[in-house]
Amino acid sequence: MADELSWQCESETLHLTGELDSDTVGPLWRQREQIMAGIKVLNLSGLSRVDTSGLALLIHLVAFARRQNVEIELQGASDNLQTLTKLYNLPEDILPAFAG
Predict the structure, then answer these.
(1) What does the DSSP 8-state code read for residue 76?
(2) Where is the STAS domain (predicted)?
(3) Running along the chain, 100 residues long, what does each successive block of 10 average in pLDDT?
(4) Amino acid 2: pLDDT
């Protein structure tokens, strides 16, 4: 059974914790517009697992912010997530560069 996904908004940072996968993305997806209001940083350091559904959600969160003229910073991405993005050979502008 997947670890539940939880999130916490702190100032301009959205902290994600747990697993971001096909079993857990639903609640965050349904609340994404409210959750992303005022967010400039996605802190991914608390994620234990991200699958392709989770990666797709991250892409959508970044795209949503860009439509609001906000450039998102991604912090704390695991090596596995960085590898997943490389395997999909995503265009460089689809996600911002991963920060420490």
Answers:
(1) S
(2) 14-100
(3) 87 98 97 96 97 97 97 96 92 86
(4) 58
DSSP-derived 3-state class of residue 47: strand
**CATH code, domain carrying 92:** 3.30.750.24
Per DSSP, 45 falls in state E
End-to-end CA distance of the chain: 29
The whole-model pTM stands at: 0.93
Q: What is the tally of structural domains in the chain?
A: 1
- Could you tell me the two tokens for 2? 């997947």
- On whether residue 5 sits in a domain, the answer given is no
**Residue-range definition of the domain harbouring residue 94:** 12-99
Helix/strand/coil for 37: coil
Any domain includes 74: yes
Sign for the CA dihedral angle at 27, 20, 99, 91 comes to negative
Q: Going by DSSP bridges, is the β-strand pair 13-20/73-75 parallel, antiparallel, or unpaired?
A: unpaired
Give the number of other CB atoms < 10 A from CB of residue 30. Answer: 10
